[in-house]
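seq as requested:
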Amino acid sequence: MKTKKARPTAKIRVMLVDDHPVMREALRAIISAQPDLTIVAEADGGQAAIDLLEDARPEVVLMDGSMPEMNGMETTRRLRQLLPDLKVIGLTLYEQTTYLEEMIEAGASGYVLKTGSPSEIVQAVRAVARGGTYFAPSIPRRVPAAAAQPAATGELSTDELAVAKLLANGRTNREIASSLGLSLAVVETRRAAAMNKLGLRTRAELVRVATKRAWLEA
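struct tokens:
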């Protein structure tokens, strides 16, 4: 009796966006060495990434934050408008942490150091591809006083908390609606209520609170 061969697991499709050829070459070597990851496109700038998106259909983008002409924040925002399920990981140098909060607000699911270890970059790609987040532990996180001390009305209902946790972990409103079996309008209402109770305005602020309260997925 013949045994059925197991179907090969689909590889995670990765796009590299960085204006430095040497950096792209290093990232290409790291990603290509993994059996479950594959490079589907490389771009040397934001507009090039937008032009390649439809044909490449990546699942995860490794995105330089400080590119000329169109920076990583704007590129992230525009790519996710075109492909809402896309996961983006910001790439940064140690001294460029100011880019990171804006990357998260633009829709990124995490960030890593360009000088980080190959294993960390791979771990980040796998984490966000699963729908989670990844923030390089070596990068100091800035927690403003408002986020460190929740407002008196900061206790969320069970329904609001479920939405807030998924939002902090990089899910879009549509993904949250599908995951929780809710309408988009209900998700948007609970999201607004949660942000209001926590005294927050942006996703970046929510991520900081989520980090402190251990809401982020591993």
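Confidence is low (pLDDT under 50) at residues 143-153.
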